[in-house]
Amino acid sequence: MKKIALAMLFAGMSLMAADGKALAGKCAACHGANFEKAALGKSAVVKGQSAAAIEASLKGYKAGTLNKNGMGALMKGQVATMSDADIKALASYIAGK
């Protein structure tokens, strides 16, 4: 019985794992489907940045300590509900585009 419970727990955890592609859906409106656009004509193009740089930026926006090109408040709202795992998954997905 314990083995079944543990198997179900791990299966559930993998289903709840962050999905970078799904998270990126709301980013495409401003950054483009392939992250090739300067959001609102202000931000740097995200495509080509490393996962580590993207993750650091997203965490800075979430913390409210980053305000590149005046985009801090807007980006803080976009990432406010993301967990660290979500941010890592999103950054990895974007870097792989």
Which descriptors apply to this entry?
97 residues, mainly alpha, Cytochrome Bc1 Complex, Chain D, domain 2
Topology of helices and strands:
Layout lengths: L1 H15 L3 H5 L3 H4 L19 H13 L8 H8 L4 H12 L2
Helix pairs in contact: 4-5, 4-6
Structure description:
- The chain has one domain: Cytochrome c-like domain (Cytochrome Bc1 Complex, Chain D, domain 2, Orthogonal Bundle).
- Helix 4 packs antiparallel against helix 6.
- The protein has helices at residues 2-16, 20-24, 28-31, 51-63, 72-79, 84-95.
- The longest helix has 15 residues, at 2-16.
- Mean pLDDT is 86; it is low at 2-16.
- With 97 residues, it is mostly helical.
Describe what is shown at a glance.
The protein is mostly helical. Helices cover 59% and strands 0% of the residues. Mean pLDDT is 86; it is low at 2-16.
CATH-level-4 superfamily name: Cytochrome c-like domain
- Strands, total number: 0
User: Which of globular, elongated, flat, extended, rod-shaped describes the shape?
Assistant: globular
Distance between the termini: 43 Å
Can you name the CATH architecture? Orthogonal Bundle
CATH class: Mainly Alpha
- Total number of helical segments? 6
Q: How helical, in percent, are the residues?
A: 55-70%
Main beta sheet strand tally, sense and closure: none
As residue ranges, the low-confidence spans are 2-16
Query: What's the overall average pLDDT, rounded?
Result: 86
Structural class, from helix and strand content? mainly alpha
CATH topology: Cytochrome Bc1 Complex, Chain D, domain 2
Provide the succession of SSEs. HHHHHH
Q: From the alpha carbons, calculate the radius of gyration and give it in angstroms.
A: 16 Å
Amount of beta strand: under 5%
Total domain count: 1
